[in-house]
Design a protein that fits this description.
four-stranded antiparallel sheet, single chain, Jelly Rolls, mainly beta
């Protein structure tokens, strides 16, 4: 759901991919749980309109977050129980994001904010 005329923001929104919002329609926030387990799972697609993303591990297993099309054990960023990984202007990435959980299944919460 877009936030129209965000309070406190008077300029134009710009995505991490350099796309400038000319519509004034605010931003879209997509929040969803993603089940993962013993394989590489793409949790975010390429999105040049991405402003930020937050990936949170709330379950018991370790997970590896990889920027790109594939994730594997001991590669990328280790995400412990209760840990999170943030993509924003300090850690920009507009490409795909994949995750790998080392044992069993895990639920990862993915929140992506982008231009409409």
């Amino acid at each position: 759901m877009p936030i129209v005329r965000e309070s406190g923001h008077f300029g134009k929104l710009v995505s991490l991919g350099g796309i400038v919002d000319e519509t004034g329609r605010g931003r879209i926030c997509d929040i969803r749980p993603q089940a993962c387990g013993m394989t590489s799972v793409q949790i975010l697609q390429d999105n040049p309109r991405r402003i930020s993303a937050l990936i949170t591990n709330g379950d018991l297993y370790y997970a590896w977050v990889c920027l790109g099309d594939t994730a594997a054990p001991d590669s990328g960023t280790l995400l412990l129980q209760g840990g999170s990984y943030q993509i924003d202007e300090n850690n920009p990435w507009t490409g795909a994001v994949t995750i790998y959980v080392n044992t069993g299944t895990d639920t990862i919460c993915v929140t992506e904010t982008s231009l409409p």
